[in-house]
UniProtKB/TrEMBL annotation:
Region (Disordered) residue spans: 31-56
Residue ranges occupied by any Tim44-like domain in the UniProt entry: 87-233
Annotated family: Belongs to the Tim44 family.
Subcellular location: Membrane
Biased composition (Basic and acidic residues): 45-55
Cellular component terms (Gene Ontology): membrane
NCBIfam families in the cross-refs: Tim44_TimA_adap
SUPFAM superfamilies associated with the record: NTF2-like
InterPro entries: NTF2-like_dom_sf, Tim44-like, Tim44-like_dom, UCP031890_Tim44-rel
Record keywords: Membrane, Transit peptide, Transmembrane, Transmembrane helix
Main location class: membrane
Molecular function GO labels: protein-folding chaperone binding
Protein name per Swiss-Prot or TrEMBL: Calcium-binding protein
Amino acid sequence: MGFFDFGTIFFLIAAVVIFFQLRNVLGRRTGSERPPFDPYTASRTGDKDAAKKPENVVSLPRKRAPGEPADDIYAAIDAFAKPDTDLNKGLRAIKDNDPTFEPKTFVDGAKMAYEMIVMAYADGDRKTLKNLLSREVYDGFVAAIGEREAKSEKIQSSFVGINKADIVSAEMKGGEAHITLRIVSELISATRDKAGAVVDGDPETVAEVKDVWTFARDTRSRDPNWKLVATEEED
């Protein structure tokens, strides 16, 4: 051991100290370490994963094949209308022909259309009515507007709001979906003659109005809009 001089012993001690420091910092291998990142392998794996992904990222709605499980495509309908009822069956039939149909969304849209139609009729706005009504209903509304104008009468109307809007029936008629709603709304409405005198209604009183309206849409058409095809005032 005499051939070890001071310098050799110093470097040996330094090497041992460095070894233990590195061990403490880097830790020991346990066998569960993640393998080092290999960019080439990762690239090949990514290519394989990409190849497995379908070209269409968004799943397009489709009609179910006969006997195919319904899964939860009717969940919103079952929550809206009790299963096995005529209403539920009618809404399901519409869903089968129009995968984008949702009853709650329809009701929200129908409520907006109701207010637009009521106010357009009061204002004699034929253009708005034409976009929202079927030909038969439009002709009836326009005839009433024309009769009112011939008498120089005007409707003073203020829409307060809708208290209730319930789907009471739904069915497919050929390729057309038909949905009937019972709508309870509040309006302030009065008809005035040429001199401004009130001949119908009351400009100071909020009146409750009950309507039964039917909307329809051709599910074979790309036009997503529903149109009012029948109206009835409930007593």
